[in-house]
Records
---
Amino acid sequence: MLTTILLLVVALLVLLTFLGAFFTIQTAHAGIVQRLGKFARIANPGLNFKIPYLETLVHTLSLQVQQLDVKVETKTKDNVFVQIPISVQYRVAPDKIYDAFYKLSDPIKQIESFVYNVILGHVPKMTLDQTFEQQAQIAVDVEQSLDGSMKEFGYSIVKALITDIVPDNKVKSAMNDINAAAREREATVSRAETEKMLLVKKAEAEAESKRLQGEGIANQRKAIVDGLRDSITKFSEAVHGASAQDAMALVLMTQYFDMMKEVAGTNRSSTIMMPHTPNALTDLFAQFRNAIITGELAAGAHAEGNRPPPPRQV
């Protein structure tokens, strides 16, 4: 009975040992196998075998592209503090798996240190505007510097991306105010140019209107003159002995009475016709004065006629 139990225990140990000698590695990964604490080999993806109790799978490295986000705070040349988020995409070089595992104890911290070193060596030499303008170049410098430094440790830098540059909130607010003022200035200039164009077009339209109106008046006066000339010619031919002056006086008198008739043709007219020349005003004043004197004389004569006779003296 005891022998049977021992055989079963031995068989179980042999089975577990046999099963423990096999292991699998996932795709895009690599395994580090050590023999008695010393590096033995690199296990490739798939089913692998190790010597039981002598070899150990100590670690599995991913060969996929990984991303590390680093946020660096620094000061620009014009004394503006900014935060620069950087995304570093890296991977383990397939031919340097040994270096990637044994040369660096903490590759993440190492990459962060190199990122800080590159950023602090570039941004403090630039102003804030230059930092925004050369954002892509800074990312290229970070990528090249990191790739050159991390190759000896078995890491390859795929890409370094600066996703944003974040200045202090007060600086950001001031920049927004400057941009808003600049845009408002451009809008004001544009509105002024538009108003200027409208005024020029309006002035050109008014000038054209005045020109056409002047041509119309000139043509009207020409037609009037032509008509008067024909009328005077016909009047002189029809009335023997009449001169051109007589015909002109007749025409002017006719137009005068036509005008008087038109003014008096409405019952709501409030127009008073008065002479307007200096001589005519003098004559009008003389007529008013004579009328007043005549009225006073008439009134005096009427009063004298109504006065009772004086009493007779005895």
---
Amino acid sequence: MTQELKIDTMGKDCPIPLLELKKAIKNSNKGDIVEILFTCPEAVETLPSYCAEQNHEVLEFDKKGLNGWVIKVKN
């Protein structure tokens, strides 16, 4: 059964969003979905890059509010 994990790192600077994403993926099962909310501008590049390097599928990547983003990653 696929699980969806939600992580809120709004207001936290890099590398916190990337570290939280890595930890969530490591602790989840293949096929699970990790959704992470973040405000760190650097993470706009680092999170998708990490996913591409590790062959994790980005299902969604959208702007959220004035200075936030959401990314959904399939493990």
